[in-house]
Amino acid sequence: MKAKRNRRQLGFTLVELLVVLAILGMLAALVGPQVLNQLGGAKSKTAGIQIRDFEQALELYKLDVGRFPRSEEGLEALVRAPSGAKGWNGPYLKKSELPDDPWGNPFAYRYPGQNGGIDIVSLGADGQPGGQGEDADISN
Questions:
Q1: How many helices (H) and strands (E) does the chain have?
Q2: 22-31, 68-77, 81-90, 131-140 — most confident range
Q3: Rounded distance, CA 1 to CA 110, Å?
């Protein structure tokens, strides 16, 4: 008689398994959106870090050439010498190709920018000017 009881107590019943699965489903429903929000925030932070890297590379470019690249030359001047850029000693970025923002869109570059300096902008997840949250523009 004792052997029969032990066999029954070894496993879980179907009801117990369903309760555990329901609890796990509710936890996933509560935690999942928070994890996805953190992922979007990480992409925005990555874009900000990339923009700071561009700023540093542009400062090195300016030291060598004596000026920032013009808007027409763009950030491409950091990896390939533009015509008429005497003293160019690049590439100024580690990779030989210009990186895109974390959403796969190119960065926008203007010089002179709105405040007279350089403007480097990622248009966010939607690739359109403006927006909120993950779609917001990120700039220096």
A1: 2, 3
A2: 68-77
A3: 85
Backbone angles phi, psi at 106, to 5 degrees: -70, 150
Residue 61 one-letter amino acid:
Y
SS3 109: strand
Distances (CA, A) of 56 to 13, 74, 108, 132: 62, 15, 16, 27
Q: Which residues contact 134 (CB under 8 A, 6 or more apart)?
A: 40, 43, 44, 124, 125
Q: What is the pLDDT of residues 76-110, one digit of tens each?
A: 999 988 888 888 887 888 887 888 998 899 999 99
Beta strands in the chain, from DSSP E residues, in sequence order = 108-110, 119-122, 138-139
**For residue 118, how many other CB atoms are within 10 A of its CB?**
20
**pTM for this one?**
0.68
- Is residue 54 a contact partner of residue 47, using CB atoms and an 8 Å limit? no
Cis peptide before 99 (omega within 30 of 0): no
